[in-house]
Amino acid sequence: MEASIMDGKTKRCGAVSGLTTVVNPVSLARLVMEKTPHIYLAFDAAEAFARAHGVETLESSHFITPENIARLKQAKEFNRVQLDYTVPTPKVPDNCGDSQIGTVGCVAVDGAGNLASATSTGGYVNKMVGRIGDTPVIGAGTYANHLCAISATGKGEEIIRGTVSRDVAALMEYKGLSLTEAAAYVVGQSVPRGSCGLVAVSANGEVTMPFNTTGMFRACATEDGYSEIAIWPNN
Question: Cα 199 from chain centroid?
Fold first, then answer.
């Protein structure tokens, strides 16, 4: 498992990867941000840091479920990597499951315009040992500054190549685009179709959740009671 978190006001951030026992990876990423001079800890060192700071851990067997075993068996049978939430069914074409991404991300803004972003994932099923995706890479899967906060999901290699989260912020900062315009450009032009989606919020409360896959699990809520929950395109 891997995760990252970023505070937009200070640009402080923390990231972890290679976790096998930590129950809440984002909480560990926050501790890296708050308790160390570093940004990124990984594998055995990250696990040791978690134990030293009393972070909740469980035996790795806790995270193994019959459904995940079935997904791994399917992926190995077809000699491929696949997204975490791909339904285990026989003879599934390689392009299926693009609407079901296994990443959890959140962005937030408070009444003073302070922004934050956090992302957590288990990555691909049947990935190579040691593979790290976009989720813990600041500027790829997660980013926040004084203008916006972004959390991305999808095919990690494409999101890293496209520096997706940072590019949204850069288009706002350097070209004066709105959050919706910037996010739509990045998702539509910077990464291949079928590879990416994101949730984002600006300092003034603008929310956008674009994706170039079949669908994306997403939701937003405001303190005045408005909420939106969706999977498929709105139009």
Answer: 9
